[in-house]
Amino acid sequence: MAQKILQGKEDIYRGITIWTERNPVTPAEAPEILKRSIEQWTAENVHGVWFKVVNKDAFWVTILIANGFEFHHAQAGYVMLTKWLPTNKTPTLPRYPFTSVGVGGVVMNSKEQFLLIKEKRGIYLGWKFPGGLADPNEDIFQTAKREIFEETGVETEFETVITMRHTTSISSYKNVGDMYFVCAMKPKDENKIEPKRCPRETSACQWMTLDEITNLPSWEFHRFNKSILDAYLHWKQSGRKGFHMDKFEIPELRRSWSVYTAD
Fold first, then answer.
1. CA 97 – CA 85 distance, rounded (Å)
2. What is the pLDDT along the chain (263 residues), one digit of tens a residue?
């Protein structure tokens, strides 16, 4: 009778992915089955092993660590571990994504007033443009619309991307960078622009004129926010489309993107 080997899906890079929920074994059986599987994968010249452990099979984690696997990433419901098998080749397993995406929005109404907020907590509590982290599966402009509405109650429409900030490390997470896009937005309905602050996130939100913003002290409106405002005014005065978005599709590859192009 053939001895049990863990079954998975091979990829074009000579890797294999194992899902614990598709390979039901007991904690007592697991160490020996893993040993046999590694021996077979090595003989078959498999390079990288991806091992997805779902919550109910958490016993696998200590067994995998004892056999040279390393943590790769975790999400709700599972943890992924990896092992590079060849001893004579440099590991080429890709790292997990290491850049977070945030989006803010500059909203100007027909009276040339700008929508600003103050956050309830954080290292900076002065006036700023609304914005926050993107959710999974959101386009940049969708994040801007959602964050503005959540923080101010004002519905908006996307016009263009006016600037972005990039840092290679943020204090919240180890080895994670940050990209923060700022969009030019406009009210969806000028008759429905009364700000309604989010009691959970914002301590204040209101419309301000350019003169009112200019007269704010630096600790109430810091230099990065001023640079955003300058970029917006420059775009507005130029009359150009700016870094605008178009949908791009390649049906034969079943791919679609939001493509941003400078005008």
1. 23
2. 457 999 999 999 999 999 999 999 999 999 999 999 999 999 999 999 999 999 999 999 999 999 999 999 999 999 999 999 999 999 999 999 889 999 999 999 999 999 999 999 888 899 999 999 999 999 999 999 999 999 999 999 999 999 999 998 876 778 888 999 999 999 999 999 999 999 999 999 999 999 999 999 999 999 999 999 999 999 999 999 999 889 889 999 898 989 998 88
Q: Quick one: 8-84 is in which CATH superfamily?
A: Gcn5-related N-acetyltransferase (GNAT) (3.40.630.30)
Spatial neighbors of 234 by CB under 8 A, at least 6 apart, are none
Q: Which of 176, 144, 178 is nearest to 161 (CA)?
A: 144
The answer to whether the beta carbons of residues 86 and 93 sit under 8 Å apart is no
Q: Where in the chain is the domain with CATH 3.40.630.30?
A: 8-84
- Secondary structure in 3-state letters for 15-34: EEEEEHHHCCCCCCCHHHHH
